[in-house]
Write a structure and sequence with these properties.
With about 150 residues, the chain is of the alpha+beta class. About 50% of the residues lie in helices and about 20% in strands. The chain has a three-stranded antiparallel β-sheet, with no helix packed on it.
Length: about 150
Amino acid sequence: MEYMTIKRHCYHKVTTVHGSEIAVVIGARMKEPHPDCPLGECTMLISGTWTPNIIWYVADEPRRFSDLKRALTGISSKVLTTRLRKLERDGVVLMTVKPSSPPTVTYELTELGRELRPVIDAIVDVGRRLKESKLKRLDDAQIQLSSSSPAGG
């Protein structure tokens, strides 16, 4: 069955006898999308601490584990390993072992993983704008505080 998401609702797409599509609501204003909803599938995939960051860092070129560990300041080896294994199981990341001494292991996005790149890019863009907005609000508040304090204090 096909699903679509509209305004935080997940709907069944149902075709009537006359061929017109109608939407039947599964749940109203659910806190989490219905388990069969594609929105829920995607958000579960990229949710979790570090997962979007890992996708971001392997998007442009294959990366070695040590490169990822260095780039993702603060991530533990255990968490990085766990996230990479999950992304590999989900078909987002491909692990390649190159025979050498010692063996070289790299991680890169699969075709499915590359489809997530615009999503991650959009999140990064919104994050930048949120940070800029927050800094502007802080600057404005600071200016307002300094202009309201008595001169020559």
